[in-house]
Description:
Blueprint: H1 3-14, H2 30-41, E1 43-50, H3 57-65, E2 82-92, E3 95-105, H4 118-136, E4 152-157, H5 166-175, E5 181-185, H6 193-209, H7 222-232, E6 237-238, E7 245-248, E8 251-258, E9 261-264, H8 273-283, H9 285-307, H10 322-428
Parallel strand pairs: 1-3, 1-4, 4-5, 5-6
Antiparallel strand pairs: 2-3, 7-8, 8-9
Helix pairs in contact: 8-9
Magnesium ion is lined by residues 57-58, 71, 103.
Amino acid sequence: MAATDLERISNAESEPRSLSLGGHVGFDSLPDQLVSKSVTQGFSFNILCVGETGIGKSTLMNTLFNTTFETEEASHHEECVRLRPQTYDLQESNVHLKLTIVDAVGFGDQINKDDSYRPIVDYIDAQFENYLQEELKIRRSLFDYHDTRIHVCLYFITPTGHSLKSLDLVTMKKLDSKVNIIPIIAKADTISKSELHKFKIKIMGELVSNGVQIYQFPTDDEAVAEINAVMNAHLPFAVVGSTEEVKVGNKLVRARQYPWGVVQVENENHCDFVKLREMLIRVNMEDLREQTHSRHYELYRRCKLEEMGFQDSDGDSQPFSLQETYEAKRKEFLSELQRKEEEMRQMFVNKVKETELELKEKERELHEKFEHLKRIHQEEKRKVEEKRRELEEETNAFNCRKAAMEALLSQAMHATSQQPLRKDKDKKN
Ligand code: GTP
Ligand code: MG
């Protein structure tokens, strides 16, 4: 067979054949089926708000979703940053949205802010871990699983007009591989238009020079490429939040009223609130969810599985089966366990030997002490014996002397009693 024929056959095998249908079959309704299934299932969307206490996080959330979420104000005296998630069921037309707003309470209030980012990173990782655990279950129920992975982090920048604080840079850097960050300048009505323009340029410059990756609205889908490209150039959005309604002309609009005028939240000449709402909710909500799953969660999952010892291929690009990896890991674990057991046994034996030696040493010392005391005791006993003997001798000598004295005394007495008789005899004579 000629070489060209072989090529043709192999090409024909690898390329799918296109067939034209004789009539309507119906698989063009597949997208509608997907939409219908998704609508029935409902959606979840999770927003993380990071920003100083009182920067306007809750007000902005209320303004964004045109409702009043119950929130409590944070004090400025939190000992550390604490994450507070709150979930709400929202419905618009027939679409159900499970919205979770996570507040980083007490952010920026501590004197030492070195670890302020850590509880936030831990929270994000914990949501990834929960999802991974669900995926690894034998009986998974991802269909009705409440996905709490953070889809977007709204990072509230204080409108100083100066530059980013190091806390902002450090936190965003730590978060950028874990979550889609959209930076926003909060309370933009407190800074003049020209200052705001310079501030935006400065912020973007600082983010780039510090290698912080913020979320870029996707430009690969033709339908939204143009608007997203324009909006990317507007980042960070400068927003104003308010739930107060003010009469402007003959319309009631959400605005902040000042002695010098009214700042309208939904007026694009006044702030970027509408841009944020459009980008976050109407145009890119699905992309944010998708990026969370395919980029951030994927990275977490890969690192976690590699940490557990799983690999897709060995050094020679030979694919590893899960079974083999598991077996290898199990063997490694068992031999490690055995090694540890042996180590502990050896340690125990050594400890017993050491204790035995110590006890023997103590026994020897005690014995020596006992011998010493015994010697002292015998010496003292000998001395006491000697003293007793001396005393006995003294007593004997004393008794002898006493007897001699008594004898002398009786002789003397006898002699004196004889003398008057002799005198009487002499007188008679
Ligand atoms: P904590 O939850 O306590 O950390 O505060 P927060 O960040 O949720 O701030 P919150 O929305 O409670 O707003 C704090 C104060 O800032 C309130 O008095 C708001 O009226 C005011 N505020 C909110 N948004 C804006 C804004 O865009 N501009 C101005 N000037 N003030 C605002
Ligand atoms: Mg709040």
